Give the backbone structure.
Amino acid sequence: MPFLLERDAHIDRLDHLLAECLGRAGRVALVDGPLGSGKSELLRVFAARAAERGVLVVGAGCSAQERDLPFGIADRIARSPGWPAGHAERLAALADPAVLAGPAGSAGGTAVAGTALAGTGDPAGAPSPALLRACRDLTTALLAAAADTPVLLCVEDIGHADEASLHFLRHLVRHLPQSRVLLLLTDGGTPWPARRRLHAELLRHPHAHRLALAPLSRAGALRLVTEGLGEEDARHRGPGLVDVAGGNPLLLHALVEEHLDRADEPEPRYGPALLSCLHRAGPGVLRVVQAQAVLGEEAPAEDVARLLGERESADAVARIRATLTAAGLLDGEGRLRTAAARAAVLEDLAPHERTELRLRAAQLAHETGSPAAEVARHLVEAGRAPAPWAVAALTEAAGHALLDHRHRTAVACLRLAHREAVEENDRAVLRHRLAQAEWQLNPSEAARHLVPLTAAVRAGHLGLAEALVLVRYLLWHGRGEEALAVLDLLRARNGPAGPASPAETGALRDIETWLAYTHPGLARGRRVPALPADLRHTVAPDVDPQLRAAAALAGALTRGRAAEALDHAQQVLHDAHLHGRTAWAEEAALLALRVLLQAGRADTAALWSQRLLGTAARREAPTATALYSAAHAEAALRLGDPTTAAEHSRAALTHLSPTAWGIAVGLPLGTLVVAESRTGEHRSAAKHLTHAVGEAMFQSLYGLHYLFARGEHYLATRHGHAALADFLSCGELLRTWGLDGAGVVPWRTQAADAWLRLDNRDRAWRLIHEQLSRADADLPHNRGPALRLLAAAGPAGRRGPLLTEAVDLTEASGDRYEQVRVLTDLSRVHQGAGNRRRARLLLRQALHVAGMCGLKPLTRELLSVSADLGESGPAADEAPEPGGAGTLTESERRVASLAVLGYTNREIAGRLYVTASTVEQHLTRVYRKLGVRRRKDLPADLRANLRKTG
């Protein structure tokens, strides 16, 4: 693909010089320009034009590898094909290196001593007589050969020419004016002082001319891309290619070719094309670019020079940068244009060279007082930390990375620091910190540290705080006996004969309190005596205060006093973003959310879990993201939104694999099973129940959650006996654990539901009354379902009042799933009483809520009931009473529409950005205008107003 664009003026000028040459006025032209600016292409195109005019084209290229070979260029020129007969032999004989290096007097008296040619001394100094004679004889022979045939002599990259050949070219230039030779030279790259002197010597003659090439303009670069890719492809990819090429024709051409060869790749392979250009510039240029890539794009020239040692000076580095910037290989700030470019120049180094360069960079950063993160970056890239200061820098950098929630960076630093540390105490502490950092990314990765950390605790290399975190990790992975052994060891060390402080004793009490709620199967019989009141809020200096918060919340939940802990839970959640680095932060936040759920504040729990989830996602912490996804899923399920619950449960199992979840997998798995059962995805729910879970899970609340969810699935799929067995097992576990009063799961209510489906009303009635006699029975989310089942188990005459109260309770709790079930039962009651209009209104309201929440099984059940009422489906709305809905204001219609759909006053206020008091006032006016007394009497067709006005 040709890419000789924006070079017409240069071709015209060369044509003019060639015309003068044909008239026996020899000329020399130096084509100068940055790397990859198209010098070789210009020579190629012009040589083809000259050959068409009968000019003999002779070419020779210089190479850095042959710089020490005397008269290398002269030899290649002399041996080029096309010289007239007789002259070719003469030139070949004069330029033969073997002859030139032979004894004096050979080859017609023109040979000189080899040492006289190879050791010319200072390039700027005077040439030896022998070298001058050789240059004179070669020049005479070449001009004689061009006497009858015009010659275009092309020599590329004269900056790499050996000194003897450069003397020959200087000599030739001086004798060109009366010849038919056009000498066309190219040069570029880094403008070393010696090359600048060469240019000055060549261009001081009146018959010498300089042609300067510049990078392509943006329009020219886009045209080149269009010619290579076609208009359609260039329209989409062209601007991106032009941006990374910086107007460099050679680089742009390479990128286009790469794209044509790999059209299926989304990004251009910029690295190989750039390396090709840099290699052509010489090893010194590439070393500077590699050193800059190691240090960072903002590194000053002085630091780059220091990194390279004695190889380059700061001035030389600055010159190289300026030249590469002019070539478009660096941007206007002297930086590589893409991350791919930086990676490519570093990968071009041999592994040992890259390591040594990184270690020198780390040493340089350490000596100059650079931040620990900068030192650690080089050490991690090198994969070595050979000195104590290096381990200290890695540890400090990891601490800063954890504060900034850059967990992957912290893991990389801590892994290297742990590997290079020498002292056992230091290695144990570093391993503990590494496990914490890896835990945030994947608990399965941290599991490999559990055995060594347990050994470190036994050997006394870890403190109390680290040991308590280890207990949590062991429990997560189902290694309960090992966790208890560690706790027993800690208690023995801090017993009556030990040196324990009150604060340390308090920390042990906190872990036992937390254990009693979260892993009650392991905590039976393990109690620490209560502390004096003045020590209960004392925290050991090295113990995480979030552990104290988790213990306080767990204690409240264990005693069934969630409502009393609401303020504390809200404060923990409010401050959660301040404790992202601590090992117990997520545990405290999850228990705070549990307090909200147990206290009937599912809507608030959903808001907080959503907020925490967003923070964890921004911090790129997969473990925290998974935990808060699972928490949000449970809150959504409590609000009767199984679609959202299933979505976030699946996300939780994506952020962490089921294996990484450990025994805690029961939380997202159980929520997902219930959610899919409620949306009618029974096959998928059953598949999730086939996931292997260990027995250790059933010694924790995670196992209880899973067992309860399995019972719900069996109940939804009409396996009443299996469901009953699971619910009763939940009750037995809670009684065994001493948590039956904590209200962890409403097992009595669900067991009663199972008994009713098995047609045993007496057993159901007893369980319901037990539920209603509990301390937390008055909470709407507990009392509403219990009253619905009590209505089903009791006499028909009491069903109406019970279900009417249950409607208000489910509305207050925000549980739309339970609301649909209550509305359905109440609709049947009104149907049995002959009030078909009221039955239809309740049924439509239930249908709308069920459809909105994706409750497919309930929707199908409601449609069958609808058919019994003589309706074709949910669209068969009755017209509103004359003068009814039409009298409502816009604001009243909005409030009423949301009320019909089942939203609570608080939710309506949030959606419409008004206060709850305003919502209540609007509803009061709506009731008066429509002639109804309460929310459940609102016409179901008001939902259409939401679509019209929303």
About this structure: Residues 424-441 form the longest helix (18 residues). The first strand starts at residue 27 and ends at 32.
